[in-house]
Design brief:
With about 350 residues, this protein is mainly alpha-helical. It is about 55% helix and about 5% strand. The protein contains 13 helices and five strands. The longest helix has 29 residues. About 40% of the residues are buried. The structure holds adenosine-5'-triphosphate and magnesium ion.
Length: about 350
């Protein structure tokens, strides 16, 4: 057995997470994922971050747009503060071991588990007979993304909690069926004031990069005027802001805007309400817009710079894939050996 592979329940902490290049990045991706990846990287734990292009194609992606979105996502990671020398930053399809371990997990996961996934129900909708097989199987590939690195912690937004739980089920079943203690049981890490940023048009719906309505989201590359306009037009209720978090009960749109403010400013909701409680939205929205512009425009500017010449990104991704494979290859090989595949 390769000595690089850990096989005990005492796994070294390692962080993995990914984002799909399925459109432009949103404020939800930034606050729920990217900003937290950067904070994690700074703690010094080994961190691996991925552009999951093979997840993106579970729904139709125009090839030129997919390529552009992958570059833009990589630029977004770097512009948000991810350091490709400290963290491993790579594109999923450049590490073929993901698809290989994904297949193994297709054979571990059960149909019933997949049918219970709320994201499958939401994304396939009423027309599930016409959805791709990949969309149905996607959580098994996500489990492979995580377990291929023996990751122990997975920072994600609230919407991905169920998928990380499925990853735990897959790891547990594999270990049990083969009588090994090979895969760690990873923990979802869902923290901060904005674990679920909601649509600006509907406070009960998640902000998503694939939402057909551009007004529903703030894109990291929106200019200052667009950000201000979207916040000004965001749905709200007629009441003033409360002074305490309890007062946000039953007010999803108000809660969302306060959460966004808190997360952008690294404050708690109570701290924000202590400052802005009693204000009308007509007064709060411009303050929020100014904060959003101040925090996002440096990121957007750096993304534009990085996008001007993609050779720098190509080099970062090639290096990232190489480093990722150094970890992934022995773990895949050991998985094959455990399962009984000849040649492993
Ligand atoms: P899509 O609509 O194509 O699924 P998405 O915006 O949901 O795109 P993903 O690539 O699926 O983005 O998710 C990337 C990361 O961003 C995940 O960790 C996810 O939990 C997080 N995330 C996505 N949307 C939000 C949101 N509205 N609030 C907080 N975190 C979010
Ligand atoms: Mg999503």
């Amino acid at each position: 057995m390769n000595e690089a592979v850990q096989t005990s329940s005492d796994f070294t902490p390692r962080v993995f997470s990914g984002i799909q290049p399925s459109g432009g990045l949103t404020l939800g991706n930034y606050l729920g994922a990217m900003k937290r990846f950067v904070d994690t990287q700074e703690t010094g734990v080994q961190s691996i971050y991925c552009m999951v292009d093979q997840h993106a194609i579970t729904v139709w992606q125009d090839p030129a747009k997919l390529r552009h979105a992958t570059y833009e996502l990589c630029a977004g990671y770097i512009a948000s503060g991810l350091n490709p020398d400290k963290s491993i930053l790579f594109n999923q399809s450049q590490v073929p071991e993901h698809a290989q371990l994904g297949w193994m997990f297709n054979c571990v996961a059960r149909m019933g588990w997949m049918q219970r996934m709320t994201q499958w129900k939401d994304k396939a909708g009423k027309n599930s007979q016409n959805a791709s097989l990949g969309l149905f199987a996607y959580p098994a590939l996500m489990a492979a993304d995580i377990l291929l690195y023996h990751a122990t912690h997975v920072p994600v937004g609230e919407d991905q909690k169920q998928h990380v739980e499925l990853t735990r089920d897959i790891a547990t079943k594999f270990n049990h069926d083969y009588g090994v203690d090979f895969f760690p049981i990873p923990e979802p890490v869902i923290e901060g004031a904005a674990t679920r940023v909601m649509s600006l048009r509907d406070g009960t719906k998640k902000m998503s990069k694939s939402d057909p309505s551009d007004a529903s989201r703030i894109n990291l590359r929106d200019d200052a005027d667009t950000i201000a306009k979207k916040i000004r037009k965001a749905k709200t209720d007629p009441e003033a802001l409360p002074s305490e978090a309890d007062g946000l009960e039953g007010r999803p749109e108000a809660r969302n805007l306060v959460n966004i403010y808190a997360a952008l400013n690294d404050q708690s909701v109570d701290q924000v309400l202590a400052e802005v409680g009693g204000k009308q939205f007509s007064e709060f929205k411009p303050i929020l817009a100014d904060l959003a512009v101040a925090k996002l425009s440096p990121i957007s500017g750096e993304m534009s710079r990085l996008m001007q010449d993609t050779t720098e990104i190509d080099a970062i991704l090639a290096k990232g894939a190489e480093r990722a494979r150094e970890i992934a290859t022995p773990i895949l090989k050991e998985t094959y050996r455990i399962v009984g595949m000849v040649g492993a």
